[in-house]
Amino acid sequence: MIVEINELEKVTLKNPIVVEGFPGIGMVGPIAASFLSARPCMRLVGTISSTHFPPIAAIHDYKPVSPARIYACEDHNMLVLFSEFVIPAEIVLPLARELIDFAKSKKAKAIYSLAGIAVELPSEKLHGIASTPAMGDLLKAKGVELIKEGATQGVSGVLIAECAAQKFPAANIMVETNKPLDPASAARLIDFLSSMAGFKIDTKPLLQEGQQIETKLKGAMEKMQSLHQDYKQMEQNPMYG
Fold first, then answer.
1. How many other C-beta atoms lie within 10 A of the C-beta of residue 70?
2. 115 forms bridges with which residues in the sheet?
3. pTM score above 0.85
C-alpha cells in the first residue's frame, strides 16, 4: 500500500468524529490537533506511514514516535490525526482515500478538517466547505459562511472532495488568518468544534501559552525540514571511509 494506517491498539468508540489537522495556512490545523492530542483523555492509538514520507522520527518526552500520528479519546468520542511535516503532493490523494476508509471502518459520523484561510485583515468569520447538503445545513445553522466558488488545496482540500464523491459526511472549517503560525485562531476552531460535537474543551491554556506553542511547533517543523534536506543531500553525496 502507498499509505498505511497502523493501529497500535484497539479503541472502543461509538460513531466518533474524526478531526484532521495536517499542515496548512497559519498552521492552525496542526496547532489545534496537537493541543487536542495533549488532553488527559487522549492516547496514541495509531500511526500513518508511507514510503513517500520523509525518513524522519519525532522525539517527544524522550520517546521516538512517528511524526504522523492518530490519537483517541473515549470521553469525547473523538479521533485526532495530524502530522509534523507537510504531506508530499504525490501522496495527498492516496492519503485522503485511506483516511476515509479508516473513518468508515470506525463507523465515524463525520470528518472535520481544521484549517486556515489567508486574508490581509482577519475577521471573526468562519468559512466552511461541506461534503453533503445535510452537513452544509448544519454549518450554516452554526453561523459558518459556506464557500460558493473558489478552490482549496492540500490534504483537507482533496479529502473534502473525496468525501463529497463518496457522500461521506465531512466539513472543512476555516478561520481567517494573516500569520504564519496562529494559536489564537486554532483555539477558535477548537471552540467551534466543541460546539459542533457537544463537548467542552478549555482553550485558555492554548491562548495563554500561544507564544510557547508557536515557538515549539515552528522549531519542530524547521527541524523536520532540515533533517529531510540533510538526508536528501546525503543520498546525493554519500561519503565512504
1. 23
2. 174
3. yes
Domains and CATH numbers, the chain: 3-225 (3.40.50.10900)
The full DSSP string for 97-154 is: HHHHHHHHHTT-SEEEEEEEEE-SS--S-EEEEESSHHHHHHHHHTT-EE--S----H
Burial of 142 (0-12, 13-18, 19+ CB in 10 A): middle
H or E element: which one contains 63? strand 63-65
188: amino acid identity, one letter: R
Q: Which helix (H) or strand (E) holds 196?
A: helix 183-197
CA proximity to 181, closest of 203, 206, 198 = 206
pLDDT per residue over 35-91, tens digit each? Answer: 999 999 999 999 999 999 988 888 888 999 999 999 999 999 999 999 988 999 999
Give the span between the Cα atoms of 144 and 49, in whole angstroms: 34
Cα three-residue angle 191-193-195, rounded to 5 degrees: 75
Distances (CA, A) of 224 to 53, 56, 230: 11, 7, 10
